[in-house]
Design a protein that fits this description.
10 strands, 6 helices, binds 2-acetamido-2-deoxy-beta-D-glucopyranose
């Protein structure tokens, strides 16, 4: 007689375990929400390692860049050259001498160099309050000598970009490129003691919104717009393992605008809402139903697996039904 309550207790534990096992997991990539319209809370998301792509969108009314397109660019076009205004997959065709008025293919604005260089004043500090990813910052990057035994003492690089993208990619730099951890400071290009000048940029990425630079590269051609022949990159940089790694990590991981998810069918939304509200009770009921079947002699493992599968499906449905990122 005592066996029955004990068996029931174990059964309850099993069932509780089934419910917990299907917990919705949160994607923990570094991300930035880009809000360009005040009609609702929907926003586009910039995501580290995103492949980008999808349709491009238009910035809403009242925004300083109202009417410009943004998003839609794919990761394979992220890498530019040493010329400011490079790295644009679209939007740079009409006038290579200016960066003014261009769209934002990856969702982010170009770096600001001051003195209205190539018409860049519109991306200046007066708009830092809404710069996607936050104000411009700079981080020094030096390889860890414990990892690179023959590292030259002056093998130094700098990353310049918006705060959130730069902090996000810094984790990858430290993890993959074994650079010494360092924190960003405000990038002040017009300050006389600014460490990095426009002629130090080795490569621009993501529509000129992110750059890697080195004091060992002095490309004077960069001071005049686009068309000039750049100084070739010194051998020491080309051969540097640190440089090669930084360049590859930025190309592969720097956050870019996600494509919008496909709009769910209206039936899907309805089902999503039903599952969103009643999903847990339904699943608890289903799980208990499963457990009762088990109590009648079914295969417990199979039932538990089925419970997990239902939870997983429910999580998928809920995600699809959120209509998240769906812009008006
Ligand atoms: C690069 O070279 C030019 C010409 O020699 C010089 O005026 C400039 O200060 C140099 N830039 C840097 C950042 O060293």
């Amino acid at each position: 007689m005592a066996i029955l309550p004990a068996g029931l207790f174990i059964l309850i534990l099993q069932c509780l375990d089934t419910v917990n096992a299907g917990k919705v997991t949160v994607n923990n990539n570094p991300q930035v929400r880009v809000t360009t319209n005040f009609t609702n809370w929907d926003a586009r998301i910039m995501d580290q390692w995103s492949k980008g792509g999808g349709q491009n969108w238009t910035i809403g009314e009242g925004h300083p860049f109202q009417g410009r397109s943004f998003g839609g660019a794919t990761r394979d076009k992220i890498k530019g050259t040493s010329a400011y205004g490079s790295g644009y997959p679209y939007g740079s065709v009409t006038d290579l001498n200016t960066i003014s008025g261009r769209p934002f293919p990856y969702g982010v604005w170009p770096i600001y160099w001051g003195n209205n260089f190539m018409g860049s004043d519109e991306y200046g500090p007066q708009n830092d309050g809404i710069r996607p990813g936050g104000q411009l910052v700079i981080i020094p990057l030096k390889g860890d000598p414990n990892y690179y035994p023959n590292l030259p003492a002056d093998d130094t690089y700098y990353a310049i970009g918006d705060r959130d993208s730069t902090l996000g990619i810094m984790v990858s730099f430290v993890t993959w490129c074994h650079v010494k951890p360092a924190w960003p400071s405000k990038f002040q290009p017009t300050s006389p003691n600014s460490t990095v000048k426009i002629e130090n940029v080795i490569t621009y990425y993501r529509a000129s919104s992110f750059a890697l630079a080195s004091p060992n590269y002095n490309n004077t051609a960069a001071r005049t717009p686009f068309t000039n022949d750049p100084t070739s990159l010194p051998e020491s940089i080309q051969a540097s393992k640190v440089w090669q790694c930084l360049d590859s990590v930025v190309s592969n991981a720097l956050m870019i605008m996600n494509p919008p998810p496909p709009k769910p069918e209206s039936l899907g939304v309805t089902l999503g809402i039903i599952f969103g509200v009643l999903g847990l009770p339904i699943l608890v009921a289903l799980t208990w139903f499963g457990c009762i079947l088990v109590a009648w002699g079914g295969n417990i493992k199979k039932r538990v697996e089925r419970g997990k599968e239902l939870k997983r499906q429910e999580a998928e449905r809920r995600k699809a039904a959120l209509a998240y990122e769906n812009y008006p």
